[in-house]
């Protein structure tokens, strides 16, 4: 089992979650579309050669984003990350994938 964590601007929160859920992430027992999310402020500065969705090259940008966390089965994690990247508006989305310990350890 993995935990998938990503950061997404509010404008694309629901569509990115929907894509990742459709890939099978966010299932816990008899429940699906399970996640935890919280708003925060991300910052970045696009460098030369980038094509930023938000902001201008060489200018520091701060934007309200959501941190979204969900679990994902081992067999679906690659598909879920591929779906996340396809649905996300950023050319370099921030994504964390953590392998979880087995319950009872």
TrEMBL record:
<dbReference type="InterPro" id="IPR015867">
    <property type="entry name" value="N-reg_PII/ATP_PRibTrfase_C"/>
</dbReference>
<dbReference type="InterPro" id="IPR036069">
    <property type="entry name" value="DUF34/NIF3_sf"/>
</dbReference>
<protein>
    <recommendedName>
        <fullName>NGG1p interacting factor NIF3</fullName>
    </recommendedName>
</protein>
